[in-house]
Design brief:
With about 120 residues, this protein is mostly helical. The protein has one domain (about 35-120): Tetratricopeptide repeat domain (Serine Threonine Protein Phosphatase 5, Tetratricopeptide repeat, Alpha Horseshoe). Helix content is about 75%, strand content about 0%. The longest helix has 22 residues, at about 100-120. The chain is elongated, with a radius of gyration of 23 Å.
Length: about 120
C-alpha cells in the first residue's frame, strides 16, 4: 500500500508541476474588456499625459474591434503627442472612414481639431 500511495503522490506532484509551469491564465472581465471601455481608459490616460499607457489601451480597443473608429482617433492622438504626424493623420483618416453615426463623426472631427491644435503648439512663434 505504501508503494501505491507513493505513485499517486508522484503523479499528483507531476501534474501540479506541469500546471504551475504553464502560461499565466488571463481572466477577462467581459464588461471591462470592450473597445468602448479601453477607449475611455485611453482618453483618461492621455488627459494625464500617460501616452504609452494610452497607446496600449487604444491598441487593445482596435484589436477587439478593428472597425471601431474611436480606437483610431485615440491612436492618432497618441501619434500626435509623439510628433509622428504622418501616422497620426493616417489614423485619423482611417477613423473618418469607419465613423458611424453623428457621435462618432463628431469625435473624429474633435480628434482632428485636437491633433492640429497640438501641432500649432509645437511651432515656434
Amino acid at each position: 500500500m505504501g508503494l501505491r500511495a507513493l505513485k499517486y503522490f508522484i503523479a499528483i506532484a507531476a501534474l501540479i508541476l506541469l500546471v504551475a509551469c504553464g502560461p499565466d491564465t488571463i481572466f477577462l472581465r467581459s464588461g471591462l474588456d470592450t473597445p468602448f471601455q479601453h477607449v475611455q481608459n485611453g482618453n483618461r490616460l492621455l488627459k494625464y499625459n500617460k501616452v504609452d499607457a494610452a497607446f496600449n489601451e487604444f491598441t487593445r480597443a482596435k484589436n477587439l474591434d478593428d472597425q471601431y473608429a474611436l480606437a483610431y482617433v485615440g491612436l492618432g492622438l497618441v501619434c500626435g503627442r509623439k510628433n509622428q504626424t504622418k501616422e497620426a493623420v493616417a489614423f485619423m483618416q482611417k477613423a473618418r472612414k469607419l465613423a458611424l453615426g453623428a457621435n462618432e463623426i463628431k469625435a473624429v472631427d474633435l480628434g482632428f481639431i485636437q491633433l492640429y491644435t497640438h501641432e500649432d503648439k509645437k511651432k515656434p512663434q
